Amino acid sequence: MKYMLMMHAPRGAGDWAIANWPPADLKAHIEFMIQINKELTAAGELVGAEGLAGPNEARVVRATKNGTPAVTDGPFAESKEFLAGYWIVDCATTERAYEIAARASAAPGIGGVPLNMPIEIRQVMSGPPTEM
Question: Which of 72, 82, 106, 128 yields a CA-CA distance of 20 to 30 A from 57?
Fold first, then answer.
């Protein structure tokens, strides 16, 4: 089964708190994420993973009545967290997806202290079969 694991990060002063970390701590955090991806790839479980730009670069798009894009700043200003990145994994059980999410949640923060970030998990749904 495929699952999307969405990493929610806390905002900093108007953007992403990680932007203000000491360089060594940021490097350790990124190396941790790279290692998880390598391990999931080796296990045949990684479908895809990406980090996302900070909320200051997010935009919300809606179609206007004539179908052209109406673009506004996003995400919602009142949110305390934002989507920082995601993994799509293909694993045998939901419990395995939980294990992966727990490991990602414990990514190191400042001074190596685990962040214990919330990781939202959703099964990737497939559509109904189409007739040809």
Answer: 106
Question: Is the pLDDT assigned to residue 11 strictly greater than 80?
Answer: no
From residue 47, how far is each of 9, 43, 129 by CA, in Å? 22, 11, 22
Which residues lie below 8 Å from residue 106, measured CB to CB, with a gap of 6+? 114, 115, 116
Spatial neighbors of 9 by CB under 8 A, at least 6 apart, are: 16, 17, 18, 81, 82, 84, 117
5 phi and psi, to 5 degrees?
-110, 115
For the domain that residue 87 is a member of, what is the CATH number? Answer: 3.30.70.1060
pLDDT digits (tens, 9 = 90+) for 82-113: 888 999 999 999 999 999 999 999 999 999 99
Q: How many domains would you assign to the chain?
A: 1
Residue type, 31: E
